[in-house]
Design goal:
Blueprint (H helix, E strand, L loop, with lengths): L2 E7 L2 E8 L17 E8 L5 E6 L4 E5 L2 E5 L3 E5 L6 E6 L10 E3 L2 E6 L4 E6 L5 E6 L9 E2 L4 E8 L2 E8 L5 E8 L14
Antiparallel strand pairs: 1-2, 2-3, 3-4, 5-6, 6-7, 7-8, 9-10, 10-11, 11-12, 13-14, 14-15, 15-16
Length: about 190
């Protein structure tokens, strides 16, 4: 069976479909199935028309206003949403446990849970701008705001700590010591961002 993940960005949907290799039928011939692989489809939300399809390694897609990024576990790929072709490719730590990428201003933010680091990449070139050591593991994927700030929710001694960092520089703007969590488990402070 195929697995799919859908992300939405403005007037388009990004659908990432993974089709596993087919099993051989009793007749000895493979069943009639699509080619195995991982495919990213760019679909117009209003019409359902597919603009393009491209084959990529399986990964996590994150969408921004002017592009998309695919994190495969071994590389970060900037994708031109007009064509589906890669704009740039950057190798990342294969041994890391990556959170879902987040867009913050003109950068893509990746957080490695295993090493407790945040890496920020230039959205236009894919170049690593900086790497920042975090003081605690994250509780949730990073959130971002249109201002270019990134919000990190980390385990604190008495609850959850929320840090606001300027993504372009890594400068800490503020940090709260304790945030009450909602009944769903997500920090109440995430509402309205």
């Amino acid at each position: 069976f195929a697995a799919a993940k859908v992300n939405s960005c403005g007037a388009h949907l990004a659908v990432f479909v993974t089709i596993p290799p087919s099993q051989t039928a009793a007749s000895g011939k493979p069943p009639a199935t699509p080619k195995p692989g991982s495919f990213l489809h760019w679909i117009d939300r209003a019409t359902g028309k597919e603009s393009w399809q491209a084959e990529y390694d399986q990964g996590t897609v994150c969408l921004g206003a002017d592009g998309a990024v695919l994190q495969t576990g071994k590389e970060l790929i900037g994708i031109d949403t007009a064509t589906g072709k890669p704009r740039w490719r950057t190798a990342i730590n294969k041994a890391a446990i990556w959170r879902e990428p987040a867009r913050a201003g003109d950068a893509w933010v990746l957080v490695d849970d295993l090493n407790q680091t945040m890496e920020v990449y230039d959205a236009g070139s894919g170049e690593l701008r900086y790497r920042l050591k975090l003081d605690a593991p994250l509780c949730f994927d990073p959130l971002y705001a249109d201002s270019g700030d990134v919000f990190l929710y980390t385990n604190a001694k008495d609850g959850v700590s929320v840090s606001c960092l300027h993504a372009a520089t890594g400068q800490l703007r503020w940090k709260s010591s304790i945030v009450e969590t909602s009944s769903a488990g997500a920090p109440a402070a995430t509402r309205g961002l």
